Amino acid sequence: MRAQIEKLNELLSSKKRISITTHTNPDGDAIGSSFALYHFLIKLNHEVTVITPNRHPDFLDWVPGIKNLEIYDEYPDKCKKILSDSDLLFTLDFNDLKRASNLSCAIDEFNGKIVMIDHHQNPDGYSDIEISEPDITSTSEMIYKFIELSDKIHVIDKNIATCIYLGMMTDTGSFQYRGVNDSTHKIISSLLSFGIDNNKIYNSVYNSNEISKLKLLSIALKNLELIVEKKTAIMFLNQADLIKNNHRKGDSEGIVNYGLSLKGIHFSVIFIEDENEKNKFKISFRSKEDFPCNEFAFKFFNGGGHLNAAGGLYKGNLNSAIEYFKKSLNEF
Ligand code: 5GP
Ligand code: MN
User: Fold this and answer.
1) What mean pLDDT comes out for the span 311-325?
2) So what's the pLDDT on residue 314?
């Protein structure tokens, strides 16, 4: 990491026009790491824009700086112009161009230098500077390490610390996952010293739901199926459920964890149909201990992620999706 950061700091030694982008359906770590870096680079006197492929969920609408976010889906021409005027492009919290969906072409065609900062396994190799740390639990923590290794801790302020805390909190399941270690907590201790309001951040993310979220949770729980001999829980939400309950972006996030909360269950999956396209499912996988969600997602569902949390896709009807899942599980 140190050698890559030295190269990066060379690029940053003169004023640059910089774009920062992240994966589609940005989550707390995607938004947290992007805006932490945004505030940091602005303080170093660069010109910076954050561009996401599509809109973030409402529960991230309070993040410092997010009012200046550009959303590619909504203003593609404006975003293309910003990208073509940039000297430097950061891609954060993903390492596979596919994950940037509609933005991936623009990234592919980018003329300046690309810097990837990410914590997923097996990077694609599309960047000029690749900072990849699969053992670190969030990209936001990597941003802290980047700042620290650049001898710039003194530049951190409450906004930067808040954004880093957000990403670290969400990508560690509020500090419960394996991979959280003494270094994670030392960084949290440092962030708290900048006066962040950890309780407010938690409540903004987890205790600001609309009723639609609980309605969808109740439907998913009603659909819960257990395969006890495989220690597996299966849930689904179909398009009609989403539409009937005024589904909002982010409402279905986290539901998959309820399957894992059961004693004796080590693997949980939820199939969520696309709100706009029938027979297209986004799948979330979660596991306890050693069950490799990422390998399973990669092998059978064209996806990937981490050991205990991964995602994938399936095209076809719900019954065939679940059949295929069960068959794959038997094979795995
Ligand atoms: P989630 O279930 O919350 O959407 O995703 C869990 C984890 O899996 C995240 O770390 C995310 O980066 C990764 N992930 C989700 N969907 C995909 C996918 O389609 N492809 C890959 N490679 N990773 C994914
Ligand atoms: Mn992440």
Assistant:
1) 97
2) 98
pLDDT of 178 higher than 90: no
Q: How far is it, in rounded angstroms, from Cα 140 to Cα 53?
A: 19
What residue owns the CA closest to ligand 1's atom 7? Answer: 310
Contacts of residue 288, Cβ cutoff 8 Å, sequence gap at least 6: 260, 265, 266, 267, 308
CB 188 within 8 A of CB 169: no
Average pLDDT of the segment spanning 104-133: 95
Question: Does the C-beta of 311 come closer than 6 Å to ligand 1?
Answer: yes
User: Which SS3 state, helix, strand or coil, does residue 99 take?
Assistant: helix
- Helix 139-149 vs helix 158-171: crossing angle, to nearest 10: 140
Taking the centre of ligand 1 as the mean of its atom positions, its distance from the CA of residue 306, in whole angstroms, is: 8
Do the two domains 2-206 and 211-331 of this chain adopt the same fold? no
Find the 189 Cα to ligand 1 centroid distance in Å: 28
Q: Ligand 1: which residue has its CA nearest to atom 23? A: 304
HSE-CB for 68 with a 13 A CA cutoff: 14
Q: How confident is the model at residue 286 (pLDDT cuts 50, 70, 90)?
A: very high
* Mean pLDDT, residues 319-329 taken together: 98
pLDDT score of 260 more than 90: yes
What are the sequence ranges of the domains in the chain? 2-206, 211-331
Ligand 2 centroid vs 96 CA: distance in angstroms? 13
What was the pLDDT predicted at 249? 86
Q: What is the C-alpha separation between 133 and 273, in angstroms, rounded?
A: 32
Query: How much is the average pLDDT of 197-206?
Result: 98
Burial 213-226 (b: 16+ CB within 10 A, else e): bebbbebbeebeee
Which residue's entry shows tokens 């050991």? Answer: 307
Please state which CATH number belongs to domain 211-331.
3.10.310.30
Mean pLDDT of the 37-66 span: 98
CB atoms within 10 A of CB 279: 15
CATH of 2-206, one of 3.40.50.300, 3.40.30.10, 3.20.20.450, 3.90.1640.10: 3.90.1640.10
